[in-house]
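Before going further, learn to read the protein records used in this course. The integers have meaning only within a learned vocabulary of local backbone shapes. To see the layout at work, look at the sequence and tokens printed below.
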Amino acid sequence: MTVRGQLVRFALVGAVNTGTYYGLYLLLLTWLPYVAAHVLAFLLSMVGSFFLTSYFTYRTRPTWRKFLLFPLTNAANFVVTTTGVYLLVDVLGLGSRYAPLIASAAAIPITFLVSRTIMLRPDPAKAPDPGPETGKAPGPGDDPDRERERRTMDAV
């Protein structure tokens, strides 16, 4: 898949995620202060975003490692949007209902680059180690315990 295709898919996931976030934000805004509503809506929508980003944007298998690293993709987004929401509402006097939508636009490029790096990074557990004697990576049917047992029997 090309970077352009990933970017288009990322934008679609971003639109869905923004809608999810904003719907949750408005719902939570009915009984929470705007910053608390923003933080909770952000966290909940991030979980959905992880799975959409994994399956749809980059077409990779979600793993616990990626899931645990995924919040790093949103760290810059979180800082930019939270700062933006605060500045727009408290400094510039914009209504708290629309400030998150405006603030989120500035974080899109940063989030794409970081998410692409994390989601497409090879899993270190998947990298095959070279075999001890042959210097070649084990094949799909190789069993290291069985090979060790065979070498022990050959030595006897």
Q: What stands out?
A: The chain is about 70% helix and 0% strand. Helices lie at 3-29, 34-57, 64-91, 99-105, 108-120, 144-155. Confidence is low (pLDDT under 50) at residues 143-156.
